[in-house]
Amino acid sequence: MRQPIVLNSIRDTDYPKLIKLWEVAGNIEIRQTDTLETLANLLDRNPTCNYAAYSGSRLIGAVLAGHDGWRGYLYHLAVKPDYRERAVGTKLVRAAVSAIKCEGIQKIHCLVKHENLIAQQFWEACGFELRDELVDYSLVMI
Ligand SMILES: CC(C)(COP(=O)(O)OP(=O)(O)OC[C@H]1O[C@@H](n2cnc3c(N)ncnc32)[C@H](O)[C@@H]1OP(=O)(O)O)[C@@H](O)C(=O)NCCC(=O)NCCS
Question: Which end of the chain has fewer surrounding CB within 10 Å, N or C?
Fold first, then answer.
């Protein structure tokens, strides 16, 4: 029988489990910038915003989140394939959104690939609005 799903704050010691989650999830690109150090930095700056979903001792989903005082951002939301469509993603997003809102932030962004149609349906179901007038520019400094 499946164990109840519990949300916990992410700790930097979760990093190896997060990497495994992102690898099996699909549609998450693990980049050179996604290191243990950058995760620890995100958690230091946003200690209440990042959540992992556990079934017993198994990490089965997670969302990275934070804000810069101006806008909130969500990254690398993923749920293990065998736990999908059971509202785990929704619970993770609600927890992160609520934590960011508690810090006085009124707007949150997340980036989604054009071809990731399931994620687009997911974000719309969570109340996020598509901004198709925008394109994203990034500057990588390594
Ligand atoms: C996107 C993802 C996190 C959703 O997680 P999840 O726990 O399965 O989502 P939920 O069960 O909370 O679904 C909430 C809503 O999203 C939509 N949704 C979720 N999965 C869907 C699917 N396979 N097809 C269509 N709509 C879907 C539905 O509207 C659903 O509401 P409903 O259950 O009332 O129909 C998961 O599919 C995943 O890990 N995908 C791979 C990684 C990824 O793409 N991450 C997003 C990067 S931007």
Answer: N
- Residue 2: the pLDDT is 74
Backbone angles phi, psi at 72, to 5 degrees: -100, 155
| CATH for 74 | 3.40.630.30
Decide if 133 is inside a domain.
Answer: no
Query: pLDDT digit string (tens) for 87-131?
Result: 999 999 999 999 999 999 999 999 999 999 999 999 999 999 999
The ligand 1 atom at the shortest distance from the C-alpha of residue 76 is 47
Ligand 1 centroid–CA 141 distance in Å is 32
Residue 62 inside a domain? The answer is yes
pTM metric for this prediction: 0.98
Q: Which of 45, 51, 29 is nearest to 140 (CA)?
A: 29
Q: Is the CB of 90 under 6 A from ligand 1?
A: yes
Give the pLDDT confidence of 73-86 residue by residue, as tens digits: 999 999 999 999 99
Report how far ligand 1's centroid is from the alpha carbon of 42 (Å): 24
